[in-house]
Write a structure and sequence with these properties.
heterodimer, A: 6-stranded mixed β-sheet, 4-stranded antiparallel β-sheet, globular
């Protein structure tokens, strides 16, 4: 954190699904090397907020800036070519890791990792392969580079998904409940990779229920409830000495479970 | 007698082996009776239909009739290829947000599915000829069959594209792939895997539907059988022979389809 300009900056994000007012004006800034965690019960809007940051959900109102690209919500004009191209530029600056991995099943592990670099960034194949191998090694999946995703465990799939996102050299990595679809014994290997990335100074935004990870790796926690950020601060403050009732209730129920 | 194994023992318990043996026996018995049913039925049908069979007729003509199978296969392969191209375009149109593209595609499907194939064959061949556009017979047949099957397969491809999980598209979007590439590199390859069995079925149906172009005089299998049989009133001999050839063709391509599906299933989830 510090005085440097934010890498991600979202202002006044509102989102309606039909009549349902899911986000009620959320703003958020993420600085370089920072790991920010969004927590809150399901339905609080944290996943929607994350998906609004790269316009997988088009916000109803608000502006998102990542690096040098800023996109204003334009829900009446989502088809316009210019708008869609700006959104694509925005997405190039943000890597995303999904709850369900979403690896491409018809491509090998390596194929998954070089698809976007070669076809979007125009990288040379051998250069893309070298980058992919470096990141696969980092997530300890290099030995599976020629396997198809169907042959991998959930934890392995998620580690490949992380490598795939890293291969695009994003300015921020976003995680949408990356361990929620995993068997309990596989959670650790994914969190291990994420912790390492956080320690190396990767800029990350994480939606997750992993409180232990939050304590160890997050620089800042945002607690969301009812479509707004209720409380924000370093993990030891938000988790151990919450100021708000809603936060306390959430944590109590969570720690009981 | 110990029914359950002692802990740590490797050999299966006697009861387990007895059950397995009984299951094997039952399965073998079932297969035997199943096969016998086929043999008996086929023998009965053949005997009933060939009591007054003119074997010398077949001896004389079978090679001529069989030669028509080549045209049948050419027609089938060419028409199904055209149908696949039209079906991809049709499906993209049906899923397009562009009202013109969607309008064209849905009218195509509605018009073609709402009229008989035989009528379409007449229109493409003789109707167009009256307007001065005389298509070569083979290609009139290919267009009739291909356009017709393309309409049905449009719906198959549309369903296939929609069956690709939404997360696939989202992951590609998040990586910054443009829409065109998402369709070509991510969605289509998976959709094609999904629709392969349905296309295989249509291919086999097409083998049989090519017989309809007998009405415009393409010299395929049924045409040859009919023209050979008509001269000496050996319709039963000629038609049955053609039927057997059609059956063998469909069996052969069903077998290929099965192998193909099994191979695709292997690299899949």
């Amino acid at each position: 954190m510090g005085s440097s300009e934010a890498i991600v900056s979202a202002t006044g994000i509102e989102k309606y699904f039909g009549d349902n007012h899911v986000l009620r004006g959320v703003s958020l800034e993420v600085h370089q090397h920072e790991t920010v965690m969004l927590i809150g019960r399901s339905g609080s809007g944290k996943t929607t907020m994350l998906r609004c940051l790269n316009f997988l959900e088009e916000p109803t109102v608000g502006t998102v800036r990542i690096g040098d690209i800023s996109v204003e919500a334009d829900p009446l004009n989502t088809r316009s070519r210019g708008h869609r191209e700006r959104i694509r530029q925005l997405r190039l600056r943000a890597g995303m890791v999904f709850q369900d991995f979403n690896l491409f099943p018809h491509m090998t592990v390596l194929g998954n990792c070089i698809e976007a670099p070669t076809h979007v960034k125009g990288a040379q194949r051998d250069q893309a392969v070298a980058t992919a191998e470096r990141y696969l090694d980092k997530v300890q999946m290099l030995h599976k580079r020629d396997e198809y995703p169907s042959r991998l465990s959930g934890g392995q799939k998620q580690r490949v998904a992380i490598a795939r996102a890293l291969c695009m050299d994003p300015q921020v990595l976003m995680f949408d409940e990356p361990t929620s679809a995993l068997d309990p014994e596989l959670v650790g290997e994914v969190l291990g990779v994420m912790r390492e990335l956080a320690n190396e100074g990767t800029t990350m935004i994480v939606v997750s229920h992993e409180m232990q990870f939050c304590r160890e790796a997050a620089d800042r926690v945002l607690f969301m409830e009812g479509g707004v950020v209720v409380e924000e601060g370093p993990p030891e403050q938000v988790l151990d000495a919450p100021r708000e009732d809603a936060t306390r209730q959430f944590l109590r129920r969570f720690l009981d479970a | 007698m110990a029914v359950v194994n002692a802990p740590g023992s490797v050999a299966p318990a006697p009861i387990v082996m007895a059950i397995a043996a009984a299951q094997r026996r039952r399965r073998r018995g079932y297969q035997l009776i199943f096969g016998a049913t086929w043999v008996v039925l086929i023998a009965a049908i053949v005997l009933a239909l060939t009591t007054r069979f003119d074997w010398p007729f077949l001896e004389k003509w079978w090679q001529f009739i069989l030669g028509g199978a080549e045209v049948t296969i050419e027609l089938t392969v060419t028409s199904i290829t055209l149908a696949c191209v039209l079906a991809v375009l049709g499906a993209l149109g049906r899923l397009s947000t562009n009202p013109v593209a969607n309008g064209v595609a849905s009218l195509y499907v509605s018009l073609i599915r709402g009229t008989p194939l035989l009528v379409q064959i007449f229109v493409w061949t003789f109707g167009l000829a009256e307007l001065g556009l005389v298509l070569p017979l083979f290609w009139a047949g290919v267009i009739s069959l291909g356009v017709n099957y393309g309409a049905y397969m449009t719906e198959i491809f549309r369903a296939g594209i929609q069956a690709v999980p939404r997360g696939q598209r989202e992951a590609a979007q998040a990586l910054g792939l443009p829409e065109r590439l998402i369709m070509r590199r991510i969605v289509m390859p998976q959709a094609i895997r999904i629709v392969i069995p349905a296309i295989g079925n249509d291919f086999i149906a097409m083998i049989k539907d090519t017989s309809l172009v007998i009405v415009i005089g393409i010299q395929e299998l049924l045409f040859r059988a009919n023209s050979a049989g008509r001269q000496t009133i050996n319709i039963m001999e000629a038609s049955l022979f053609a039927a057997v050839v059609y059956w063998i063709l469909t069996l052969f391509f069903s077998y290929i389809q099965q192998r193909l599906e099994r191979r695709m299933a292997r690299s899949d989830r």
